[in-house]
């Protein structure tokens, strides 16, 4: 089983990773370690894949799985094996993993400076625009001491959006225009850098310790699921917990 590990200086005791599609028991278009239970994969395969991740990582509590809706709601992760509707979760409990699932959207992991609180956020462009990162930061006492990692998402050379998306971001933050590159030969299409957009939003609320942003789920078919590339496909999970 292969994991993507954050290249960051989070406090000792904070553990984090993103799964890849390598290994696992899912078949067909979900081939590999699909962890999404909402994509019409065989439920038994998803169950086996999830248990394999829990076992491999040695998690002592039930991780918090979410039903994600591209919103801005964050909840406290619970140890009761109940899937809850939200696009992020946080915890201060030792061993309680926070999880978000993605297949092009941006997973964002947070750890405070003393390693006492962590959070995981699912940031598609809608959630990013509507302020889910700001919501997550608001749950921490010292934004300037937050460690943030931007996990694998669709890269800036593959994420094509319409002019209306760019206009919405620029209306909120003029600086956002720098994260959009016009598509050659099209008057109303842009390539969006979701990593840059996330950094801008985080910097604006006092978060400066930000790492990650070097992957592209769309172009790396061997390791990552991609909704934009494949349509029907699986999901990776990004996890963070306090050991």
Q: How is this structure best described in words?
A:
- The protein has 243 residues and is of the alpha+beta class.
- It has a single domain (3-154, 206-242), classed as CNF1/YfiH-like putative cysteine hydrolases, CATH 3.60.140.10.
- The protein contains 6 helices and 15 strands.
- It has helices at 43-57, 125-130, 132-138, 163-172, 194-204, 227-230, and strands at residues 3-4, 14-19, 66-67, 75-76, 84-85, 88-91, 98-102, 106-111, 118-123, 147-150, 160-162, 180-182, 189-192, 210-212, 236-242.
- The strands form 4 sheets. It has a 6-stranded mixed sheet. A 4-stranded antiparallel sheet has the order 1-2-15-7, with no helix packed on it. Strands 11-13-12 form a 3-stranded antiparallel sheet.
- The longest helix has 15 residues, at 43-57.
- The radius of gyration is 17 Å and the shape is globular.
- 47% of the residues are buried.
- The model has no long low-confidence stretch (mean pLDDT 97).
Predict the CATH topology.
CNF1/YfiH-like putative cysteine hydrolases
Number of discrete domains: 1
* Largest sheet geometry: 6 strands, mixed
Number of strands: 15
User: What is the strand content?
Assistant: 15-25%
Helix content: 10-25%
Strand order of the largest sheet: 4-6-9-8-10-14
User: What is the H-and-E element order?
Assistant: EEHEEEEEEEHHEEHEEHEHE
Going by helix content, strand content and strand pairing, the class is: alpha+beta
Oligomer: single chain
CATH architecture: 4-Layer Sandwich
